[in-house]
Write a structure and sequence with these properties.
The complex is a heteropentamer, with two copies of chain A (about 280 residues), two copies of chain B (about 290 residues) and one copy of chain C (about 300 residues). In chain A, about 35% of the residues lie in helices and about 25% in strands. Chain A has helices spanning about 5-15, 65-75, 115-125, 130-140, 160-170, 190-205, 215-220, 250-265, and strands at about 20-35, 35-50, 55-60, 80-85, 90, 95-100, 175-180, 210, 225-230, 235-240. In chain A, strand 9 (about 225-230) and strand 10 (about 235-240) form a beta hairpin. Chain B is mainly alpha-helical. Chain B is built from twelve helices and two strands, in the order ββαααααααααααα. The longest helix of chain B is centred in the middle third of the chain and has 33 residues, at about 85-115. Chain C is globular, with a radius of gyration of 19 Å. The chains are: A alpha/beta (about 280), B mainly alpha (about 290), C alpha/beta (about 300). Strand 10 of chain D pairs antiparallel with strand 1 (about 5-10) of chain E, so a sheet runs across the interface. Bound molecules: adenosine-5'-triphosphate (ATP) (2 copies) and magnesium ion (2 copies).
């Protein structure tokens, strides 16, 4: 049962509390305008992410997960509803919300791996050059790309590119880390290593992360809260809380995985797509 | 700590308003119109026109820079007496043939360049050599090869269009993503079908820019070339019209000619090129 | 005003100005008239149009170019541009390499005559005047369809190329003599058409400049006079000055040979044939008003030149 | 134990047999030349794929799986070794080997979903327009994109794009279907549906597929043979055969998964990357 | 059927030869050189030179089209007597300043265009209007504003460079992938830093093409414009040199002037632009 049944009252009440919602997504509808069509990606989605949450968005392909993440990132404005981060409404992208995109072409092709990771640190003047390089090398080591540190992106494999993007996002140590299927292109071991790195990092710095993934097992492993979305247009189906309370127990995790799976795919999958023009 | 908790959406607060009547709907006609930007562009043109009028009035040197109203008056007069339309027609005919041939040659050259290494070198070398050459340098050869007719003008036009279009097209081709190239190769496309079915659409933004620049330079060259080349009396085009009136110091008529060039430029840009753009790269999401 | 700029075109028709430049004649005559420290900047332009633009824009003070340009500017500015003095009146020749063409009557519809500018150049106007004479006023544009526009060097090259469709060239010194030397023959001359010499180069300026700088205007006249005297006395020396300034590598003897052609020494300060020219231009509508006499478009100070 | 210990002899022997190797990769070394560097992606890899095999390439990120697939597709030439398909050496790409790439930008942006799927059918003159459209629609239905059939690629989500590419590859019904992590961007249910579609289609037409995946479970589910590659540069570690013999039994599948996992990641993962220039 | 079978690689046949000594090694110097293509390009130039010589010899009309040897002789003579270098220097000075200013203005215009919608409309309208206009139309304004000095030439040059560069740059900017734009925005880059750190490198292939075309057109325009603005006391540039020698019927010198233009074009293309290309888009994998 949701603790908060009246969101407005709750926000006011929590506003001065220490654990105020860091990200507050309220009745958000997101639409794309194409040259002659209006596509609704998500419809009336509300949720809050608290400080140090590891929040996972889970839903079928095309349900609007990437779109939601982009809206939190400030790349698109909700048609209806509001999004606030740290109490301030999101109006534009910013380095407080670092995004790891789903696409492979998110690296700057004109910079080496090292400089790609250093770039946001320098561009936002967060660190001087020397420290930035140090920090960048540290995270490149973490994603196991030490030897590719001076390579240009076009010489990397798909999974390597994504790992650079992950390193870049993590190195910024943002208020909120937004990750769109960052581990999808990774093999089992690398994936587990990355997950472990993420969790270990979280243990150290308790940052907040919003994470899109397709793997229910991955969601259970890394999250403490999971938001389940219905197919096109994406609507909130349910939220799973205290996911981390079962981390250790394998059987329980299996049961949870099955339960989420059933919940998510109870109805036959709706075909996402567009009305013909 | 408590164990895993499920909160179903319909139990949760913030009820689904159902305020979205349709998941997808057509955009309104007005919204589409505003996007075309005709309104904003008209405004810019009006501002420029006003600036022209004011500056020319202030300058008060009609033999150097006439007012817009004088120019419009001349434009009207020379349109009504049939001179301008006739000159325009002559020019457009030559312009279009030179442009089309130049573009086709550019296509041939870039197809060769993209398919063979020596073709690339050839294109690069030729472009570097001939692109900077002024048209007059081609004059003697053009006169020998094509005589004094429009053929020589077309030749010079080709020279002006070819390199710009080829350069842009070639850059466009070489910037096509590796993945798309591989997709094309996968279907066994090679040579011309590969170029027309993969490279040209994929490089369309660059090609369109090349075509725009080529078009503009064809104009510039033609206007200039008509002065240099033999025009048989009375048959000249717009360039000749401008030159003739300049020689006769009928400056408002000169500017009427230039205004015609501008107007045609605006029409071509905003009707032809914009339409192409809207139906291609804009629709394909290739324009940011 | 002591820093003045004068423009001219390249070529032997402007020989007087080369002498004036080399010998600082304008400076000298201004100083003689009591105006010290005059400096003259001579600019070279490729054609008349740019020169008149420069004059209108106030970027140059005096222009040395063709009669047509003066008449036109005088007309368009309502008399605010006027001549100072003429400086040359050499003949322009129509030459041909087509043995069938011996006179203007022999031109058929398929023949092509190269002129520097279709319709507006002196050569094109001369053809119109000839047509009016030969075929009547309504046939004034008889030759116009046969004219093609070519720069003198290009036309010369065309004549030398037996495959070229242009076999005739209404030329200008020195190109006409090179063509004649290369085997072309003379078909007509500006002197025949106009019935005497026609002023080729003339100095002109704006009335406001003339009013503000009478000393300089007078100095230009005096300098022109002295330059022409010098040319008549020492043609070799004058040609050497031309060679030095223009960089022309033609051997001096050849240039002297050219100057020895009939009427090539016609450096005449009196405006020649300009009223006939103006009459024609008025007839075809180029001039909106007909000058009463040549003094209308020359400065009052030049009225003593006794032109026509 | 490999049945064939002398590859040359074996090939001659099998050459006239009905079940001759469809794809024969022999001592293949693949290298990339960058502007000043030579990168070895795979080293001395040999394997054969038979008619109707469902062959999976499994290995850590950056070990050269995509590169191997590209070499079979004819997009790059081996530095050493040879690749033959249907007995003929591979010299160039061709529609007999349809490739589903790992990248999201493999759709032609100027064609709608329908026309993207129809395009290879028409370009290779395999079918007339009407039949091509029919076939395309059929496969678009199979990947659950019926409603997006007239959309342009840039309006699709990551997973939807990949499904279009899958439909396009399948619609061509090629001799060999080469798929590079086609399901990586798909959610659990869609992924399972796609896997099922693939298997069902295989049941119908018994085509040959070479498949790159990161999921060992997926490999076990869809393949009959799995090639395990070592990290950078990729070398053959082992081959698993008769994988389909255990399809039904879940416990056995789990055991196999664990065994493969251990085999693949027995050594600590080598960091793929390049020598500094 | 039999159950799952594991075949370890070291048990299998086709032993690992270990014939790759290094996983990665530097490419040889020769291989790198051949890639530069200088050899192939030299070949093309030699072939063209041969064709020139043969055709001119066959034509045998030195007044129209001199042979290459005559031209080279003239080139040597006029270089030795200092004329050509001096003219070239004059021209290059103006060329470079016009080019640089034009490019900077193009940068300003495209930055405005990419950041505001009205900026886009402005750029599009101005380009459509002014790009086709021949330089002579600017003459009166240039005369009024800048007089007869080099400033006027620079002004006309700017006109010729600006639109081509702006058009290409703008197309390049708008074709930058949505993802890269979002990455830039993510780091809080806006306005100028966004343009310089994200858009310019990402659009570099298009920009480079624009710069090449702009360079070529600057040449063409300058050669033509030098005639219009004239010279004082023998200080003209290459354009005037060509005109002058044409007037004096020194045709080999005319072609020596044109050859100089070609040679400078080749040097700029193959030394400057190719170096830039090799160190940027080729290294970044942005060139196919
Ligand atoms: N640029 C766009 N223009 C129009 N429609 C779009 C655009 N991007 C996405 N869509 C549509 O919005 C919906 C949601 O897309 P989104 O990318 O958010 O899905 P997703 O949940 O991330 O899916 P996936 O898991 O496959 O990546 C889809 O129906 C898609 O077609
Ligand atoms: N174009 C290229 N130029 C140079 N090196 C490259 C290029 N493409 C890939 N590589 C290198 O080759 C190796 C293998 O790359 P490949 O893409 O085949 O890996 P992969 O197995 O597909 O990895 P992933 O699972 O991450 O996609 C990597 O080390 C990579 O850096
Ligand atoms: Mg997505
Ligand atoms: Mg890969």
């Amino acid at each position: 049962m949701l603790a908060i049944s009246d969101p407005a009252a709750a926000r006011t009440a929590q506003g001065d509390a220490a654990n105020a919602a860091l990200v507050d997504v309220r009745n958000v509808t997101l639409q794309y305008k194409t040259s002659s069509l209006l596509v609704t990606a998500t419809d009336d989605v509300s949720f809050t992410v608290d400080q140090s949450d590891r929040f996972v968005l889970l839903g079928p392909s095309g349900c609007g997960k990437s779109t939601l993440l982009k809206a939190i990132g400030g790349y698109m404005k909700p048609t209806v509803g509001s999004i606030a981060v740290n109490g301030r409404p999101v109006s534009r992208p910013g380095a407080d919300r670092m995004m790891v995109f789903q696409e492979f072409d998110q690296l700057l092709p004109w910079k080496t791996v090292l400089h790609n990771v250093m770039f946001p640190l320098l561009a936002t003047r967060r660190l001087p050059r020397k420290e930035a390089e140090e920090r960048a090398r540290h995270y490149i080591d973490k994603v196991k790309l030490t030897r590719a540190v001076d390579s240009y992106p076009h010489t990397l494999s798909g999974g390597m590119k994504q790992r650079v993007a992950i390193a870049r996002g993590m190195a910024m140590q943002p208020d909120v880390l937004l990750m769109d299927e960052p581990f999808a292109a990774l093999d089992a071991l690398t994936r587990r290593q990355m997950q472990d790195e993420l969790l270990q990092l979280w243990d150290e710095t308790r940052f907040t992360v919003i994470f899109v993934t397709h793997s229910i097992a991955e969601a259970i492993k890394i999250s403490n809260r999971i938001l389940l979305l219905s197919p096109h247009p994406g609507r909130v189906k349910a939220e799973v809380r205290n996911v981390d309370s079962i981390k250790a127990d394998h059987a329980e995790a299996g049961a949870l995985e099955k339960r989420i799976h059933d919940l998510l795919f109870s109805e036959t999958i709706e075909e996402p797509g567009h009305v013909q023009r | 700590m408590s164990s895993v908790e499920f909160v179903m959406a319909d139990e949760a607060g913030g009820g689904r308003g159902g305020h979205i009547s349709q998941v997808e709907r057509k955009l309104g006609a007005w919204e589409l119109l505003w996007r075309v930007g005709a309104v904003r562009k008209t405004l810019i043109i009006l501002v420029l026109a006003g600036a022209w009028q004011l500056y020319a009035t202030y300058l008060n040197n009609p033999l150097l820079f006439p007012t817009l109203t004088d120019t419009l008056e001349a434009l009207y007069r020379r349109t009504m007496d049939g001179t301008l339309p006739a000159r325009m027609w002559t020019t457009l005919q030559i312009l279009v043939s030179g442009y089309v041939i130049g573009t086709l040659l550019a296509a041939v050259l870039t197809v060769l360049a993209i398919n063979t290494r020596i073709g690339t070198d050839f294109l690069e070398t030729m472009t570097a050599m001939f692109n900077p050459l002024p048209a007059i340098s081609l004059l003697p050869l053009a006169l020998i090869w094509f005589g004094l007719g429009p053929a020589s003008l077309v030749f010079v036009l080709i020279h002006s269009v070819l390199w710009a279009v080829a350069l842009n097209t070639h850059t466009g081709f070489t910037s096509v993503s590796q993945t798309l190239r591989m997709v094309g190769a996968n279907y066994g496309l090679r040579g011309l079908p590969y170029v027309t079915k993969i490279l040209i659409p994929a490089a369309f933004p660059s090609i369109l820019t090349g075509l725009k620049i080529g078009w503009a330079f064809a104009w510039r060259t033609l206007i200039a070339a008509e002065l240099v080349f033999g025009v048989s009396s009375g048959q000249g085009g717009l360039g000749w019209f401008i030159f003739e009136n300049r020689n006769l110091l009928r400056i408002p008529d000169v500017f009427a000619g230039l205004l015609t060039v501008i107007i045609i430029g605006l029409i071509v840009e905003n009707v032809i090129f914009q339409t192409i753009e809207r139906n291609t790269i804009a629709r394909w999401g290739m324009k940011g | 005003k002591t820093d003045i700029s004068i423009t001219r075109q390249p070529g032997i028709l402007y020989l007087a100005s080369h002498v004036m430049e080399t010998q600082d004649l304008i400076e000298k005559h201004a100083a003689k008239a009591g105006l010290d420290g005059v400096t003259v900047e001579w600019r070279m332009f490729s054609g008349g149009g740019a020169q008149t633009d420069a004059l209108l824009a106030g970027q140059v003070d005096v222009v040395n170019t063709g009669t047509g340009n003066l008449l036109l500017l005088w007309d368009r500015t309502n008399g605010n541009v006027k001549g100072i003095t003429a400086s040359s009146a050499q003949p322009a020749l129509l030459v041909s390499v087509n043995p069938d063409i011996k006179s203007l009557e022999d031109f058929g519809a398929d023949d092509r005559i190269a002129v520097p500018t279709v319709g507006v150049s002196t050569q094109a106007i001369l053809l119109q005047m000839a047509a009016a004479e030969m075929f009547g006023e309504d046939q004034i544009r008889h030759f116009d369809p046969m004219t093609v526009q070519m720069g003198h060097p290009d036309a010369l090259a065309a004549l030398s190329n037996s495959q070229h469709e242009v076999r005739n060239h209404f030329s200008s010194p020195p190109f006409q003599y090179i063509a004649l030397k290369n085997g072309a023959h003379q078909v007509a001359s500006s002197r025949d058409i106009i019935g005497g010499p026609l002023t080729q180069a003339t100095f002109f300026t704006t009335v406001s400049f003339a009013d503000g700088n009478p000393v300089i205007v007078q100095a230009i006249r005096d300098a022109t006079e002295e330059a022409i005297d010098f040319i008549n006395e020492d043609i070799e020396g004058a040609l050497q000055m031309y060679k030095d300034i223009s960089g022309d590598q033609t051997p001096l003897e050849d240039l002297i040979g050219i100057m020895q052609q009939p009427h090539m020494m016609d450096f005449i300060m009196k405006p020649q044939g300009t009223m006939r020219f103006a009459e024609h231009l008025h007839k075809i509508g180029t001039l909106t008003k007909m000058p009463e006499s040549w003094t209308d478009y020359y400065l009052p100070a030049s009225a003593d030149l006794d032109g026509n």
